[in-house]
Structures are given as C-alpha cells and as structure tokens.
Amino acid sequence: MPYAAVAVAYGGPEHIELIDIPSRAPGAGEVRIEVRASGVNPVDAKIMSGARGDDPAVLPLRLGFELAGVVAEVGPAAEGQPVLGADGAPLRVGDEVLAFRVPGAHASEVTVPAGDVLHKPASASFESAAGLLLAGATAAHALHVIELLGDETVLVHGAAGSVGRATVQLARRMGARVIGTAAARHHEALRALGAEPLVYGAGLAERVRALGGSVDAAVDTVGTAEALAVSLELVDDPHRIVTIANGPAVEAAGGQAIGGAMGTAYRDGIRAELVRLLGAGELEIPVVRTFPLREIRAAFEFVLDGHAGGKVVLIP
Hints:
By secondary structure, this protein is an alpha/beta fold. It has helices spanning 42-49, 126-130, 133-145, 162-173, 187-192, 204-210, 225-234, 247-252, 264-279, 296-304, and strands spanning 3-7, 16-20, 30-40, 61-62, 67-74, 96-99, 109-113, 117-119, 153-157, 177-181, 196-198, 217-220, 241-243, 256-257, 287-292, 311-315. The strands form three sheets. Strands 3, 5, 6, 7, 8, 15 and 16 form a seven-stranded mixed beta sheet that branches. Strands 11-10-9-12-13-14 form a six-stranded parallel beta sheet, with helices on both faces. It has a three-stranded antiparallel beta sheet with strand order 2-1-4, with no helix packed on it.
C-alpha cells in the first residue's frame, strides 16, 4: 500500500510519522506518479514548525513539495487530446518525470496535476532531478527581482547551499561576477562554478572590498544580521538586496523578500528552462546525502543543522 510522511503535530521532526494512504486514480488533467526520490528543503521544516500557520484542522499535514518518479497512470483528457505536462509534452505511462510544486511529495506515490509535471532529462538521476526545482526556481526568482545584469557584480550570502549554488550558476550564465560567502571547505567547489568565495564572519565587508570593484546587488540565502548589514554597506540601492530568509528586517531596510506564494507565476514559468539546463549539464545542485523515506526524521534533523552544503533527498 502507498505511504506518505505527515506531521501529526506542529513542531520538530519528532512529530513526523509515516502513514498508509489510498492509491488515488488520476482525474481529468492529472497523473499518478510512483515516486523515486523527493527533495527535502528548509521550507518543509518551517511549515511543519507552525511558522506559516498552525491550524490543527489541517493535521495530519502532508510534507514535501518536489519529487521525481515514473508515471504510473494518466487521467482522462479531452477527446483526441493528450495530457500535457508543464513542458508542453504529452505525458504517458512509463515516462520519467519530475514535479514541482506538489504538496505531499514525501511519499511512495502521488496523484498530481499534469501542469506541475515535466519530463526528466535522460542524463539526470532521479535524485538530482528531485532536488532541482525548488532551489533553482528560488534562485532564478531572486536574480529576477534584483534585475541583475550580465556586467554587474552580485554578492551571494550562503553560496554553498542549494539555493546559493543555483544562484551562482545562473548569475554566471548571465555573465555576472559572483562573490559568494561560505565556509572554507566549500571554496574549491564554488571556484569551480566561477564564483569568488570568501569566508563569512567579522571583517566580511573589508574582504569583499579587497577583491576590487563595486557590488551592485546581493542575494541573502541565510538570513543573518551580518548578511543584511554587509549588503547594506556595499550595495548602493537597498532595493537590489533580496532575501529568502530574513524578510521583515530586509524589507524594513528597503530591500526585497521572496518566498511563500510570492512570485509563483514566475517560478512556474521558469521550470522548463531549469530542467533544460539540468539536462544540458549547465545547472547542477549536488545531492550531498540521501535517506530512506522511513528515516525522514533523521533527514530533517540533518537539514535543520544548516550546513548540508547541497541537497538532501529521500528515497521511498
């Protein structure tokens, strides 16, 4: 019988349980997917904690938003018309796919709208595909709202994380110069992506200045007071500072915050391009560790530590 991960109460990973779920046949414009991998993200933990609402009526709460798997069943479509995925291609039984944004992705099986499903590149593993779209779409959205140009310099706080690495790669593809903060152990990997890495901590603004040139914009993926203070010190226009983790403080300082339902249309529209880049080998978010779905509590604890340095993926 299919099973899924749920939060039975708001709080930490100790409230996660696996429950049996019924297999639901797809309705019109839907597909049923046998999940091969699902990506774990900090936002999963934030929602589970109750930070975005703690209505007991929605418990038990299904967890997860992105996955990769195999189409097991396709729902009915208009007569003579195929069911199309978000990439505009027909979906058929046996297709290898990825899906985002699909609530309840941490499961062995899901039935989801075809409009949230894209074909997985043959060159990509299920694990890498499952970890692509939340981080990739967030990074693309961040660069979009700061209106980064190819001849500019962007400072990325937390460049070694999933969103940070995606931001580095997408900005470099645009031709921008990227300065990224990260622990020293991640510097070699960031240089390989074309970034100029620096350690965070006291004296960061001076270390950035020592590299030469000005900083035109900043992307904060960590939400620290240092990230905001240094960004405000180095970026002339605070509106070109964006955060995914420190919204109230950054907005109060004149910057921008993204996340939640904000920018959904843009993120949905960029999905097919991100998948294309994955297939072409031009965008990669490393999977640093996989866990069996039955060890989901340990996976969440690992992510909450905050130093994964890449993507954590669950395998049913």
